[in-house]
Amino acid sequence: MLPHRWEHALIAATIDAAKKECPYCHLGRTAVQKLLYFMKVLGVPMRYSFDIHHYGPFCANIMHDVDWLLTDEVIQDSSSKQEASDYIINDEWPELKAQFAEKLSENQQVIESVCHALSDLSSENLELIATLDFSYRWVSAKGGDGPWKTATVDKFKSIKKDRFSNAQIDNWYDKLANAGLIEA
User: Fold this and answer.
1) Shared-domain flag, residues 60 and 80
2) I want to staple 22 with a disulfide (CB 3.0 to 4.6 A). Which of 9, 74, 119, 183 is the partner?
3) Helix runs in the chain, H state only
4) How far apart are alpha carbons 159 and 78 in whole angstroms?
């Protein structure tokens, strides 16, 4: 097995938890990106940095690490479609899991709660809520006392244009606010 670092174990643990939560759900590139994004927001330590991209918050290094894990057979792509991925755990996962058992244990609650809350959402909905969250964090980082919804939605629309309806945006903003992830 190739040398690994903490983030490799985190990706594999995320895939493992997401597939346990929703075994028949599609777990592709967008889903892995967004699950890890929310884990970072909730304080799971990682070296990944997210920038806004076509499908919302994105980190190119995650995809490099996914490729590394595929090569080393820690995960595999079970999709029969060339244009989409569906990641699952593979034979080498137990060895990597054992190597990072303590750190995984320290973060297991957040990993499992994020996967429980989000694993069954479509890539489109994950894109929407992660971009809303990213927009909120961008707007609120500029300072002030809020309220944040109007400024966040304006920022979101500057990124996503008309990709999502106002009803979808309002619905998910309110759900994120009710969950305590963002302020109203």
Assistant:
1) yes
2) 119
3) 6-21, 29-41, 60-71, 93-99, 101-118, 123-141, 149-160, 166-178
4) 32
Q: Write down the residue that tokens 């985190």 correspond to.
A: 10
Distance CA 31, CA 123 (A): 6
| 3-state SS class at 81 | coil
Residue type, 47: R
pLDDT digits 0-9 by tens, 38-77: 999 999 999 999 999 988 999 999 999 999 999 999 999 9
3-state SS assignment for residue 129: helix
The token pair that represents 95 in the structure block: 């060895």
- The boundaries of the domain holding residue 16 are 1-120
- Give φ, ψ of 52 to 5 degrees: -75, 140
